[in-house]
Amino acid sequence: MHKRWFNQALIEFVIQPAGPILVKANESQATPGRPDIAFVRTLRNGTETVYLPGSSLKGVLRAHCEQIVRGMGDEYVGDKPLEMRPRVWSCDPLDDNHSCSERAGSKDWPAEQTYREACFICRMFGHTNLAGRVRTADAYPESEIHVENRDGVAIDRFYGSVEIGPFTYEVAVGGNFCTRLMVYNFTLAQLGLLMLSLRDLKRGRVSVGYGKGRGLGRVTARIERFAVRYPACELRNGGLHLLGHPKPVTTSDQLAGVGAFVAVGPEKQKARPGALFLDEDHCLPLGDVADLPNGLQLDTDDWGEVQLELTDTSQIEQLWTETCVPAWSRTAELQKEETKHD
Fold first, then answer.
1. Nearest of 222, 223, 229, 226 to residue 186 by alpha carbon
2. Mean pLDDT over all residues of the chain?
3. Which of helix, strand or coil describes residue 255?
4. Are 139 and 124 in contact (CB under 8 A)?
5. Which backbone phi and psi does 332 adopt, to 5 degrees?
């Protein structure tokens, strides 16, 4: 899957503290004169600055996507013993019997089967034996970040007295952090689920960093740019074509997921209507295409690359709500039906 690149989505957004937030530095970054618990820092343009690591942001988005899909149920697939059946939506990474990583690590599977046997979330974000499709960059300050020190203590649960402390910790309470998120070879359903997590981040429903139980970590987000690119395609006669292929993948007023690029033989066409397992190698959805909102269509940039690029917030949200999220909903409904037949 990662040897070929069919599509890419790019989302640039700004994260704003809606209260104190803290992403802890490790012990190796401890510096005399700083609080006991310091904010993580790095050098940028020759100046030391606080920042939000991309790995932390990716973990937050993954955890929120897991919460969304687990609310839909924990159906298993297949007729194997329960501990060997893959979960449809999200595995349990802390349970060796129900972890996609552990299952794949104990088998000598080819890459295609490792992907095919993974749960929906691991197909998006990956695990120790499978590269993910979602890449999150570090979030660096767009403007000056206001940082302040606070005091804290740990209370003994039996006696009500101070058990640890007092200690000081450093929090960011103002400013903007800019970052970008990239998704390679996405299906429309995966993009739709990711949009739901970004919607909740935007509305302040997702917390970031340390001390969430203490009220830290509340943030909001502002989407600055959304772009989709098809590097191996061209626009011709109103259609999106793979380079060198006469038959169009879709039209210029539609968005194509990676499943739209899968070659499907006659035997696959006879599969049960609505089936999701129509790509034999990677279990990609057939006909992974959805209409764009009125007024939007694919075009080409100065290099001739096919793209759809939006910077208007209302257009971005319209695309998400009318094209991406409905694709996720349809996949969820179809997967429910598939599970009943397995």
1. 229
2. 85
3. strand
4. no
5. -60, -40
Which residue carries 């006669």 as its tokens? 237
Residues 6 or more apart whose Cβ sits within 8 Å of residue 173? 17, 19, 20, 21, 146, 147, 148
Distance CA 317, CA 203 (A): 13
3 in a domain, yes or no?
Answer: no
Alpha-carbon distances, residue 214 vs 93, 149, 217 (angstroms): 26, 15, 9
Domain membership flag for residue 1: no
The domain total for the chain is: 1
Span 96-138, pLDDT tens digits: 777 888 888 878 888 888 888 888 999 999 999 989 999 999 9
Q: How far apart are CA 170 and CA 20, in angstroms?
A: 9
User: Residue 336 is part of which domain span?
Assistant: 8-341
User: Does a structural domain hold residue 2?
Assistant: no
Q: Kindly report the pTM of this predicted structure.
A: 0.87
Residues 29-70 pLDDT 10s: 557 778 888 999 999 988 999 999 999 999 999 999 999 998
